[in-house]
Design a protein that fits this description.
Blueprint: H1 2-11, H2 23-34, H3 47-78, H4 83-108, H5 110-127, H6 131-168, H7 170-173, H8 190-232, E1 239-240, E2 251-252, H9 257-306, H10 312-342, H11 345-350, H12 359-372, E3 379-380, E4 384-385, H13 388-410
Length: 411
C-alpha cells in the first residue's frame, strides 16, 4: 500500500535524473503560476504560454494581492482605536504584506532564480550515479511533493471553511471578523464583495505557499544532494581479500580515485554556490516573515483567548494560526536538516580508504575536509538561522506578547 502511494506521488510531475528534470520544482512552479504569480522561464515554455502567464499573473496579483491588501490596510486605519479590531487587522495586513513582499522579491530576482534552477538541473544529471543515490533522490522527491500537498491541504481547508462561513452568514462575517476584516467600495454589489473577499483570501494564501515552498524545495534539494555527496564516498571505500595490514592484500578498486575525489570536491563547491544563491534570493523576505510572525502569533493567540470557544471567529483563528505555524515550521525544519546533513560530510570523507591512495588524492581530500568544516546554514537575513531552536524562540516570544495583550485587554 505504501509502495503504491509512493509510486503514485512519483508519477505526478515525474522526475528524470538523466535529463535533470526535477518534478517537485515543476509542481511548485505550476502551483505558483495558476494562482497568479507571474514567473516564467523556470521551465520549458513557448513564447505564447509565457505571455499568457504574464498577463494572467499581472491581473491576478494586482487585483487580489496588492489592491485587496490596500483595502485591508484601510480597514486597519479606520479601526485602529479598537484593540479587538486592531489585532485582527494587524494579523491579516502583516500576513498579506509579507506575501506581497515575497512575491515582488521573486519577480525581481527571477534571473538569479533561473540560474539556481540551471545549477540544480546540472548537479542532478551529473552527480547521481549509483542505485543508492537514485533512491535517495526519488524518495526525496516524494517527500517534497507530500509535504507540499499536506501544506496546501491545511491552507485550502481553512480558506474554503472561511468561504462557507462567509456565504452562510455574510452580515456577521463580511468585513466584521477575521479573516475578512476589510472595507470594500460601497458601489460594489454585495454578492461581488463576498466573491471578491472569499477568492482573494484563498488565492493569496496559496500564492504565499507557492512562493514559500519554492524556497523550501530548493533547500530540500540541497539536502538530498548533500546525502548523495555522502554516498559518493562509498565508491572510495576499498574492499580487500586479505588483512588490510598485510602488504600482499589484493585491493579491489577499478576507477581512478583522484578523478573521483575531484568530482566530489566539484560537487561540494557547486552545492555551496547553490546555498549562497538561494540565501541571497530569499533570506531578506524570510527575515521580514520571521519578524512579523512573532506579532502574528501573539495577536492570533490573543484573539483565540478572547473569543468564545466554538464560535465561527474562534475556529477560523485557530485554523489560521495553524497555517502560520506550518509556514514557519517547514522553513525551520528543512533548514535544520540541511545543516545537520552537511555536518556529516567530514566524517564520510575521512572514512574513505585514503591510506591506499596517492598524494594527489590526499591533497584533494584535505581541501574537501577543510571546506566541510563550514556547515550549510540558511538564515533569515543573516540574523537568525533557519533551525528548530529559532522556531521555539519565536513561539516563546509570542507567548510573552500574548500575556501582555491579555493584561492590556483586561485593564
Amino acid at each position: 500500500m505504501i509502495y503504491k502511494i509512493k509510486r503514485f506521488i512519483r508519477d505526478v510531475f515525474p522526475s528524470n535524473v538523466e535529463d535533470g528534470k526535477i518534478g517537485s520544482v515543476k509542481l511548485n512552479i505550476w502551483l505558483a503560476q495558476i494562482t497568479g504569480v507571474p514567473i516564467v522561464g523556470l521551465k520549458d515554455e513557448s513564447n505564447i504560454v509565457k505571455n499568457v502567464i504574464l498577463l494572467y499573473g499581472i491581473f491576478i496579483t494586482s487585483a487580489m494581492t496588492f489592491i485587496y491588501t490596500g483595502f485591508e490596510m484601510y480597514d486597519l486605519y479606520v479601526n485602529w482605536h479598537d484593540l479587538d479590531s486592531l489585532t485582527q487587522n494587524t494579523c491579516l495586513s502583516l500576513t498579506h504584506l509579507s506575501g506581497a513582499i515575497k512575491t515582488v522579491n521573486l519577480i525581481f530576482r527571477l534571473p538569479r532564480l533561473r540560474e539556481v534552477m540551471r545549477k540544480l538541473k546540472h548537479v542532478t544529471k551529473t552527480y547521481i550515479k549509483s542505485e543508492k543515490q537514485l533512491l535517495v533522490f526519488y524518495d526525496g522527491e516524494v517527500e517534497n511533493k507530500l509535504v507540499l500537498s499536506i501544506y496546501i491541504g491545511i491552507v485550502a481547508f481553512t480558506g474554503f471553511m472561511g468561504m462557507i462561513m462567509l456565504y452562510m452568514n455574510p452580515e456577521a462575517v463580511a468585513g466584521k471578523i477575521f479573516p475578512y476584516r476589510v472595507i470594500l467600495p460601497a458601489w460594489m454589489p454585495q454578492q461581488l464583495q463576498l466573491l471578491y473577499m472569499g477568492l482573494s483570501v484563498i488565492i493569496f494564501a496559496i500564492q504565499i505557499i507557492a512562493v514559500d515552498y519554492l524556497n523550501v524545495t530548493i533547500i530540500n534539494q540541497i539536502r538530498f544532494q548533500l546525502n548523495i555527496l555522502n554516498l559518493s564516498f562509498d565508491e572510495l571505500i576499498i574492499e580487500t581479500q586479505a588483512n588490510p595490514k598485510q602488504t600482499n592484500s589484493l585491493v579491489l578498486y577499478k576507477d581512478d580515485p583522484v578523478r573521483r575525489m575531484d568530482s566530489i570536491v566539484e560537487h561540494h563547491c557547486l552545492l555551496r554556490e547553490l546555498r549562497q544563491d538561494t540565501e541571497d534570493i530569499f533570506s531578506k523576505p524570510i527575515l521580514w516573515q520571521f519578524m512579523t510572525s512573532v506579532i502574528i502569533f501573539a495577536m492570533t493567540g490573543f484573539q483565540a483567548t478572547v473569543r468564545s470557544s466554538g464560535s465561527s471567529a474562534a475556529v477560523l483563528i485557530y485554523a489560521y494560526c495553524g497555517c502560520i505555524f506550518c509556514e514557519l515550521f517547514v522553513y525551520c525544519w528543512f533548514g535544520n536538516e540541511v545543516s545537520e546533513q552537511s555536518k556529516t560530510l567530514g566524517t564520510s570523507g575521512f572514512h574513505s580508504s585514503w591510506y591506499y591512495f596517492d598524494q594527489r588524492y590526499g591533497k584533494s581530500l584535505l581541501i574537501f575536509l577543510t571546506n566541510a568544516q563550514r556547515p550549510f546554514v540558511f538564515t533569515a537575513g543573516g540574523f537568525m538561522g533557519l533551525s528548530l531552536p529559532s522556531f521555539t524562540g519565536i513561539l516563546s516570544k509570542s507567548y510573552s506578547y500574548i500575556a501582555l495583550l491579555r493584561q492590556i485587554y483586561g485593564d
